[in-house]
Write a sequence for this structure.
């Protein structure tokens, strides 16, 4: 049993963090928090506007600050943005303040799931596949570094992935205000 005060989902864009996260939050009686939405609420602009106004580096600074605020609280299911693990301090805080589930997804599934997406600034370009491949190569080891549990979402519908996770979390994670 791994005691932790929050459940935290990490993984790439299109892994199903929001969809699976909402279901898991309900199942475990946690408050669902989407870290990207928390940034939008805090800054008062959409994610594309933030990227346009302050660039990716500016977005990452907002992400770091807002995530630190969220992670100071308890009883939440936090769905993190796909790039949150790039920052070493974020990774350290994520690992300290939650039981971390890595939702893995293949680039092929990402391309299918995100092909109409207009909300992710990093994907508004022709060479999406290469961008996603490069991100996967860089980020997969970082997701694995923080994860207590990994599930391959290619294999399951959101409902099936949630059911799998409920079973596994019941034996592996224990809610505790005080992380070990
Ligand atoms: C990003 C993922 C997005 C969002 C931003 C950057 C990334 O979050 O934070 O567009 O770098 O992978 P989701 O993973 O929730 O789509």
């Amino acid at each position: 049993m791994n005691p932790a005060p929050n459940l935290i989902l990490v993984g790439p864009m299109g892994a199903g963090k929001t969809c699976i996260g909402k279901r898991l939050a309900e199942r475990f009686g946690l408050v669902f928090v989407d870290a990207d939405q928390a940034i939008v609420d805090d800054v008062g602009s959409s994610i594309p506007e933030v990227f346009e106004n302050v660039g990716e580096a500016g977005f990452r600074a907002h992400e770091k600050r807002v995530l630190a605020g969220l992670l100071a609280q308890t009883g939440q299911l936090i769905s993190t943005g796909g790039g949150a693990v790039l920052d070493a301090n974020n990774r350290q805080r994520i690992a300290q303040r939650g039981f971390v589930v890595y939702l893995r997804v293949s680039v092929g599934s990402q391309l299918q799931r995100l092909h109409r997406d207009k909300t992710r600034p990093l994907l508004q370009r022709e060479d999406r596949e290469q961008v996603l491949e490069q991100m996967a190569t860089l980020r997969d080891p970082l997701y694995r570094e923080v994860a207590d549990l990994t599930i391959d979402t290619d294999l399951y519908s959101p409902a099936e992935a949630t059911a799998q996770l409920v079973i596994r979390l019941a034996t592996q994670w224990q809610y505790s205000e005080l992380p070990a």
